[in-house]
Amino acid sequence: MTALFISDLHLEESRPDITAAFLRFIDHNAVHADTLYILGDFFEAWIGDDERTPLQEQVAAALKTLSDTGTSIYLMHGNRDFLIGEDFCQRAGATLLDDPVVVDLDGTPTLLMHGDSLCTADVEYQKFRVSMRNVQWQKTFLARPLADRQLVARQLRDISMARNKGKEEFIMDVTWEEVVKAMESHGVERLIHGHTHRPAEHELKANGLPARRIVLGDWAESVWWLEVANGQPPELKKEPL
Ligand code: MN
After folding, report:
1. What is the mean predicted confidence (pLDDT) over 7-33?
2. Could you tell me which of 194, 196, 191, 230 has the C-alpha nearest to residue 207?
């Protein structure tokens, strides 16, 4: 069994190089894997499955082809694309995953998360997250005309960028206690997440046992993925964009 994990591609029109790298990644890597997990912030922004930009359609078609050739695709929401819905997933041949979720990788239960919920030092962001994940808010938002939603999304992005500018580095990272809590409440010794754009493997203790937290990398400057193959230890891999 080979599973590949990616996150934080932040696909957008202004970065055709990242889209090209992703299409290459499908052809060279994902096509040989049994499963592809996309752990959030796949797109830089998402305001509803009905937008259907050429970029979104191109990516959906590429994923659908991948899925048709036998690679299972699982997609988790990130903080930027949490409005991706069943419609898009169907077009992409992907299955939406809950955050958090535990999956079995060759007998090792592994906790998968986007990672933003672990950044509890950022109190302001966590409040924002709660309101954005409110089902009623989402329904109301998605019912608004596309042009309205595009405007709101731009405003939210500007606010978020302005807020993050003044924040200390540690506030933007995961909280160590929260990581242990998440792993222990799910009874796992392995966690894979993205979001922080700080690719690394961390050793820790959870449930009184040696445990490992693997952080996926973003694609702004390099192609990052994690490969878990045939019971081998997970391997974080990097290639030029
Ligand atoms: Mn994120």
Report:
1. 98
2. 191
Q: How far is the CA of 223 from the centre of ligand 1 (A)?
A: 16
Q: How far is the CA of 39 from the centre of ligand 1 (A)?
A: 9
Ligand 1: distance of its center to the CA of 80 in Å? 6
Q: Which CATH number fits domain 2-240: 3.60.21.10, 3.30.450.20, 1.10.10.10, 3.50.50.60?
A: 3.60.21.10
At residue 36 the predicted structure's pLDDT band, cuts being 50, 70 and 90, is very high
Task: Compute the distance from residue 184 Cα to the ligand 1 centre, in Å.
Answer: 23
Q: What are the residue boundaries of the structural domains of the chain, listed by start?
A: 2-240
